[in-house]
């Protein structure tokens, strides 16, 4: 939607990106002579490379709301998942129930905290993730064998049944050279801080869709961290529409060269819903490709979304291709979307890179065009919103899931106040 | 037989400096089967006239009338005008991401006719119309105007003209940006619509070239928000030679 855009761009202090601006543009990027500024203490948009990661809760002080990565989150709505009173009272509620479809090539285990696979590559990078890490008692481990091609999507159902603050840990390992479609469907009522790990084996192709279809009262903060083996492909599609507050931090790291990640997302925020997605793609090795596209539709008073896209292309890497984009459609007054793409290039030599972001209202020209062809206004508006969201739904690539999400979106759109 | 009457139409737009009058009293009557060419300098208000007839919200009609067979067009919403039989082929057709041409065409046809077209004949009609306009069928699966070249967008407008069968069409610089072959193909499409449906049309153009393919019954000269001269095809040739300088001189300085 190229219209009234309140575009927010954050390019970091020392980044020169000539010709930046138009969406979809392939950019020639010239590196600045200097390293990013050192005074990151005070600087908004400090290097993502300096973000603390730790298993130790003490490394993440009690939140004030001033923190760079928490400044958009209404802490009072976190239902104590961030332990505002201090580190002593860890989360003890019953975690949402996990069930996984039983299929050949898929093993499902419930393991204790001491299982060596847990936290083998993921490290909490914010307070709620560290709280979850220190709180959970049992974890679910889903393992896809090596060299298997699993035709039927593996479905992981996460079903909440309580609003006692809880912690959850789920570890998914995809074997080398295997191919799998995986759908995580999160429903019910919950107050949960969740860590999810995706270990993608060498040469594997993993297509993961995570659907947040929680009940209205649910509060969900979640970290979904993936580590990509050499030459693997990881597609991560986030669909968020249910819950009071959902804050997801999907992270992709490259453990080997030549891997590709596509990180997509769609959120539909209604009145009073806070939906926050902060992605991080860490280009720490050579010849990796990333493409991120998130789209959001917001309607109703107090509908709120936050999107932050941190892409870090580290020094001494080469052959990186990276593009990220976020588009938001405000369907009514009183909704607010923040969008911060943050492409940070250290001294690496990149093939291509770029970012784009927009927050727009209805495109009146599109509306006029459709109506000038006889299509009544309510239907014209629905066609436009549907068209806007379809781009992400089509990325899921699993027919029945696409159909189900389409149906949900049709219902959301049917409720549009016109 | 239908009639589209424009009577002493005044149209303003809102600008940062306040309202600005663009159309300063346009009167024109078009009957079924007639072709009226409208020629005039850049910025004289031709597109404004076209958009005001279609009901674009940016343009405010301050006085005057538009009547379609006696019905007050200005009272109608944008979609109602189209349903009443008016069609505007736009100078700059709009891209609508995520909405496929085929879905769009069927949705519009359904809205225009008040019922869904029979699936078999509709598919055939679309195919035939696309063939006639030498459009690849792949366009049906692409999103409305998205990534279309300038010429492809114009063809897509005429495709709609043929499928929707309006009583009156306003063609706003449909010929601009068309190559020589495309001009011929697109003109043939307009002529077919005219013959098959006894369509009346207002053809906004800067060039006499298209008038070799689509014969105008009348040529109007449009300067500074009104029609300042009318004649037959020869007037267009004269404009081609002399430009608008004679008309602009007659304008009294404000
Ligand atoms: N939305 C708008 N905002 C400001 N000015 C406008 C707007 N729409 C039209 N105008 C002005 O109104 C005048 C008439 O424009 P219009 O597009 O109708 O001209 P035209 O005759 O179609 O020109 P062309 O031959 O270049 O297509 C121009 O001066 C134009 O700048
Ligand atoms: Mg014009």
What is this entry, summarized?
The complex is a heterodimer of chains A (418) and B (254). With 418 residues, chain A is mainly beta.
Describe the structure.
The complex is a heterodimer of chains A (418) and B (254). Helix content of chain A is 13%, strand content 41%. Chain A has helices spanning 127-135, 364-371, 377-396, 399-414, and strands at 97-100, 106-112, 138-144, 154-161, 166-174, 179-189, 191-200, 205-213, 219-228, 233-242, 245-254, 260-269, 274-283, 289-298, 304-313, 318-330, 336-345, 349-361. In chain A, the strands form 2 sheets. A 9-stranded mixed beta sheet of chain A has the order 1-4-6-8-10-12-14-16-18, covered by helices on one side. Chain A has a 9-stranded mixed beta sheet with strand order 2-3-5-7-9-11-13-15-17, with helices on one face. In chain A, helix 2 packs across helix 3 (377-396) and helix 3 (377-396) packs antiparallel against helix 4. Chain A is globular, with a radius of gyration of 21 Å. By secondary structure, chain B is an alpha/beta fold. In chain B, the strands form 3 sheets. In chain B, strands 6-9-10-3-11-12 form a 6-stranded mixed beta sheet, sandwiched between helices. Chain B is globular, with a radius of gyration of 18 Å. The interface between A and B is medium-sized, with 24 and 29 residues. Adenosine-5'-triphosphate is lined by residues 13, 15, 22, 40, 42-48, 58, 91 of chain B.
Count of DSSP strands of chain A: 18
Radius of gyration of chain A: 21 Å
**Strands of the biggest beta sheet of chain B: in what spatial order?**
6-9-10-3-11-12
* Unreliable residue stretches of chain B: none
CATH superfamily of chain B, called what? P-loop containing nucleotide triphosphate hydrolases
Largest interface: A-B, 24 and 29 residues
